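Protein modeling request. Please complete all fields; requests missing the sequence field cannot be processed.
Requester role: graduate student
Desired output: 3D structure, token encoding
Chains: 1
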Amino acid sequence: MKKFYLLFMLVLGCANGNQQSCLCIKVEDIKVIDMERPISVVLDKEKNSCWSQDMVLIKKSGTQMEPIAYQIDPNEDNKIWFKHSSESAGKTTYCFTKKKETINTPLFLSKKEDGDLKLKFGEQSLIHYRYEMKSPPEGINQLFQKSGYIHPVISPKGDTLTRIQPPDHYHHYGVWGPWTRTRIDDVGVDFWNLNDGQGTVLFKSFNNIESGSVYGGFNAHQEHFNLTQKNGAQLALNENLMVKVWKNNNPDQYFIDYTSNFSSPLKNGILFEAYRYGGGLGFRFKGQWNKDNCEVITSDGKNRAEADGTSARWCIVYGDSSDGQSSTGVLFMSHPNNQSHPEPMRVWPLNANKGRGDMFFEFCPIRHKEWKIEPQQNYELNYRMLVFDGKITPEEAEKHWKAFAFQSSIEISK
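Delivered output (414 residues):
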């Protein structure tokens, strides 16, 4: 497993203009977005031959020059990631210089342990991805066994926000996104309700695992199987689940970027029928939360009682922390390129689970309209989650969504 490292200048000769830039990256923001976010840049190996991976990236702001951490993408060795922010519309310039002296400080770490891939920021655990099969509790139907999901999601102060295999829905697995009512030719296949034995989604392999100075993450190949065929399981969908975790400067926040890229190898593809839940991004919250201590705010100003079935750019779900002294939660963001954006939501009503009012949230692109997946074509859904302790205002949520939704213009020059 490759690890990429944060580069800090110990001798800031470049800040005094004593080092010559190799090439510069100009990032232009048409809109004012003062929220930090990671961006990627692909460097042409021939045109940008002066660049090498041991160089230092400097952010130029007026007369100030600041070393910036960057990370090499394991999928493309000439693609880099770094975090960008600007306080006004216009161009921000980043330049590569030859390094003088550096120290290596890995910040995001990954570790395989007991069937989980654990992503950490320093010593702090953030999320786990389950790649080995998880059996259901003793005495429960083995059809409920599962791999290929995220649990736990842990808040910056240590609250576990997700839940798996709750007795009311043993097929709920933290953060996951199987499709519910689908049709393969003339056969209905449910990948969500595992107890029906019609379908399931399982981990196949890791395409890569990433640890570095800007983010930690993984790219996992997941397979969606149709189990209704007499001659054995039929592969219905191939999915690459790409997850990145990264931090801004707020110690009480971190981000999860969640991208599902999928295609069908079936001759006639597959139809995702319109239904109130399935696919997209599902999140089963912790058992502590109920109708009395958990609330919702959507980008259209809907609360928990009003949100279900409506559409939104973003949605805040928050509730009491484990100690009852504060709040914790997740800001969910849907990308404008997603199917049916602004995206329909499934938010459990206040009377869910016999009036207890447990919390389940989902961005559900097929809630109101079916989606035909043509054979051998690639489709993608892209989400961002801000995990936080404390509270997030609607104004802050809108800024974070804009940072996620609007792309910067990038120009590379020598």
